[in-house]
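Quick board copy: two proteins, each given as sequence then tokens.
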Amino acid sequence: MTATELINHMIPPLKPTDNGHKAIVWMEELRVNQLPVIERGKFKGFITEEIILEENDSSIPISEYELEGQECFVTEDQHFYDVIRVASLHELQMVTVINSHGNFEGVIAIEDTIQAFAESTAVQEPGAILVLLMNQRDYSLAEISRLIESENAKILSSTVNSDAKDHSMLRVTLKLNITEVSHITASLERFGYKIIGRFQEEEIKSNDQERFDMLMRYLNI
């Protein structure tokens, strides 16, 4: 799914000539705490509720506030993983989408991206999740796939992240198409792979919080 498919057309941009009061009213109506600001079709940054309250004067035009997230944007054809990465980098709940000419197309609310991810085939399809820890030089998705497919299973999705405690190590999260994975973990361990997490479908369904935590592991936020 690309960025342009995730644009929330219910969230309008503000202009530099609008004032802080208008921004606050719109935020309250839309139940958000930030809004994009554009000038002549170009994205200028985000105005947030916190910025306005800190200024302690909502009557001044937005052009006089110090905006944030000027680089918090993606292009129309970028994947929704990129949307989440950019939002996480800038610590914002929205990401702007620009076209090939650099013009503003709209914004994506991160909650919409999470919803889209939750509805994706990789998440909806029943299956277990394995988390592997390995040295970067040992990582080969082709080799891992070969071992898993030799056990009559397939990888539906995978994510790779640096380990927070040791950046020379990788955490590889795999969503499989089967729920019983004892034989797969045994095979992976036999070939020297260290499994630090195993989450089976029955366990996930038993607790709503576990489902949410699993999604966060996928998104790495």
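And the next:
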Amino acid sequence: MKYPTFTCETELIQEGYARIGGIDEAGRGAWAGPLVSACVVLPHDFALRGWGVNDSKKLSPKKREEISAVIKERTLDFGIGRVSPEEIFSLGLSRANRLAMERAVAALLKSPDYLLIDAFFIKANVPMKIFIKGDAVIASIAAASIIAKVERDRIMRELAPAYPQYYFEKHKGYGTKLHQECLKNYGICAIHRKSYRPIRQIMKETIS
């Protein structure tokens, strides 16, 4: 398995940057629930430790949980940002995505001095570099993707008992066959993203 590397962070450390934050999100494609982002500042000796960090999509749920706990315990700093379905509806997906990332940076104990971000520029008073599919190549972004994914899965499991007919603990709000069947049978609920096309279509069918 090919792992993300700490090369970019190492080069920035050699240039004098001390706190390099990697940022990624989870839940962008889900039809329900919040969008969650994380910012992770890895220690300078990360490359010597490894920790099994990889793109969260390449890890099993159990492995993500294990590695997330290791990251939180050993990293210099991490922050988590959340955006609600209501905010996604009012802001639009791209702005909501940026807001979740900005909230993750704001949640750090101490401000970073450089940011490595998956896909989006955000409002921040520090230099930043953007990577497409950064979680596959940049270690700190991959670490952020793991924390964001584990946190969002936890939120969806906690929300599930309030909406038992939707089985959010199983599909986490994504457009799986099970979720589609639930929507056909019960319509939408309060945590569905009303700006998403499949949800809008169901709302339209319900009205008609």
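Board note added afterward: The chain has nine helices and five strands.
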